[in-house]
Amino acid sequence: MRPREEVVSSFLNKSKGRNHWQGHSRRQTHPRPLSCGKYVQPDKTWDSAFPNMSDDECEQFMEGVGDDKEVRPSKTCALRAYWELYNLAAKELSERYQNNVRIFDMKAALNDTSVKKRMLNWCGFNIPVLDTVHLNKKKI
């Protein structure tokens, strides 16, 4: 599992101008302009692939906002809530279906040959070829 803030940063970078994690009907009632002045538009391809996090689910991630009920959670708050929901579901599934679902620390799985081999063996690759793997070294 990737650390929460790495996932949030990655999604923020990859989804500029889009917000798949908060409902569009709410955005139309209370539109959120982007820094360039444009508004987030619905995305027919990706919006249904992610859960819409409610304001209540996002509330615990609103830092430094105070008790102002007029301030709505940001996309960053929604992404943090999404990561928590995903993490909880993954843990529950890995406990319930131990032979079918396993969680690996992704930093170790991508950088430590023994962990990478263990992960690939678990996936059914009994003789994995590890010397041709290309890692994306881009800093997030």
Describe the structure.
- The protein is mainly alpha-helical.
- Helix content is 42%, strand content 0%.
- It contains six helices and no strands.
- The chain has helices at residues 4-14, 24-29, 55-58, 75-96, 106-111, 113-122.
- α1 packs across α4.
- It is elongated and about 50 Å long.
- The two termini are 16 Å apart.
- Residues 26-31 and 33-37 have low confidence and may be disordered.
The helix content is 40-55%
Task: Describe the global form.
Answer: elongated
Broad structural category: mainly alpha
Question: Quick one: how many beta strands?
Answer: 0
> What is the tally of helical segments?
6
Please indicate the percent range of residues in DSSP E strands (runs of 2 or more): under 5%
Distance between the termini: 16 Å
Give the rounded overall mean pLDDT. Answer: 82
Low-confidence stretches: 26-31, 33-37
Summarize the helix and strand pattern as letters.
HHHHHH
